[in-house]
């Protein structure tokens, strides 16, 4: 059966996403794949910028919000219990699902 075909798992690399870890690829392949995405992101971002598709002020605010949110979230997660985080995240996912279903997002 398909559950018997799972690859043997090496030691998990916690810096990579769980989805990439599930496929049993060697770590250097996964890191190379991540490194390939960086030029693609830069190329796409510059293309959209030079085509006038980027509002610089909004991009700055989004970047600032992402940096502050990552810092605050990383420090907040250390102090909260895992059960509370799972409940909060499940509530967030439920709200997003309902809003998507109703077409209000």
Explain this structure to me?
- This protein is 69% helix and 0% strand.
- The chain is mostly helical.
- The N terminus is likely disordered.
- The longest helix is centred in the middle third of the chain and has 24 residues.
- The chain has a domain of 37 residues.
Radius of gyration: 19 Å
Give the quaternary arrangement of the chains: single chain
Helix/sheet category:
mainly alpha
Determine the mean pLDDT. Answer: 80
Question: How large is the count of helical segments?
Answer: 4
Largest sheet: none
Distance between the termini: 40 Å
Helix amount, in percent?
A: 55-70%
Strand content: under 5%
Would you count the extended β strands for me? Answer: 0
- Which parts are unreliable, with pLDDT below 50 for 5 consecutive residues or more? 1-5
Overall geometry comes to extended
Element-by-element helix/strand order: HHHH
